[in-house]
Every structure is written in C-alpha cells, then in structure tokens.
Design brief:
Layout: H1 14-39, H2 55-65
Region (Disordered): 32-66
Biased composition (Acidic residues): 56-66
Length: 66
C-alpha cells in the first residue's frame, strides 16, 4: 500500500562495522599521505593557494606594463 511502511531497526553487524572502520582509516591515511607529498614537493608553494590568481593574469599584467 502506498503511504505505509514498516519501520525496522537496523541490526548491528560487527563485521560490517570493522570493514567500514578499516575503509575510513585507509582513506584518511591516503589523504594525509597526499597532503604530505604535496607539501614536500620541491618548488611547491608553502601556504594557502589562491584560486583567484593564475599565471595567465600575471603574463597579461606584464604585457600591459611594457
């Protein structure tokens, strides 16, 4: 019937919880490793990246000055 539903409680499954925890940990470690790799790259900029500036803007500004 439309509009009626049965509410059932979810059963706790320790195996699923264990797998989910392992997956979250692996994802977190991968993100941290990527962050560390990016910050330790030679020539990499330290600090906050500004999405509002680009090399194209710098080149066009230099051309305007000449």
């Amino acid at each position: 019937m439309r509009g009626k539903f049965v509410v059932r409680e979810l059963l706790f499954d320790p195996e699923i919880e264990k797998t989910a925890k392992a997956n979250r940990k692996a994802a977190r470690l991968a993100r941290e490793a990527e962050r560390v790799a990016k910050s330790s790259e030679p020539g990499g900029e330290q600090g906050v990246f500004s999405p509002h500036s680009s090399d194209d803007e710098t080149v066009s500004m230099e051309e305007e000055e000449q």
